[in-house]
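Example record

The entry below shows one chain as it appears in the dataset: sequence first, then structure tokens.
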Amino acid sequence: MSYAVKEIFLTLQGEGVHAGRRAVFLRFSGCNLWTGRETDRAAAICQFCDTDFVGMDGENGGRYDAVSLAAKVAALWGDGIDNRYVVITGGEPMLQVDDAIVDALHEQHFQIAIESNGTIAVHPGIDWVCISPKAGSDVIQHTGDELKLVWPQLTSDVEAMEKWDFGNFLIQPMDMGDAALNESSVAEATRFVMARPKWRLSLQNHKILGLP
């Protein structure tokens, strides 16, 4: 199998429990909740995505087989095999993740994390599972390490989510693309966490730091 990759780059993890950790981001092209075209956004299940996952024209983007893709990830990490960490993301990465790429990345000594919308069961070989549910979608992945709910999504069934089997429950303010609206999102997310102490606030630190 070959994989359609939007971009691959070395950075710091910006969100969630591993925020601040050195990581290679491997972004696959494509999503099952939005085409990525602005003309389709209003009719999409996920209307607030702030990521470009269309095509293969990003940094180190292209079509790879499993061995060459894992080798590229390792080359971007550089020397040393200790604490290697790759974040597979999208779009929706589980549209493409399979045994071959999981095995190839493990052979390169990477701990593999994934950020998924949870509508497709996550590969059992993934080491760290972050699910970010989108209101109106059919989430079937109810277990993992992080549940990251972008807020506000007022039609989300929060009480049902709190019964899911996750190690960490995170609320992340929605990026509205406007400073004043973003302040409102932060305030709403803060109120949420103050009212529901099972959850913790997660910020997009990479944007604050000016990282990709």
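Notes for this example: The helical segments are 66-77, 99-107, 158-161, 179-195, 205-209. The mean pLDDT is 95.
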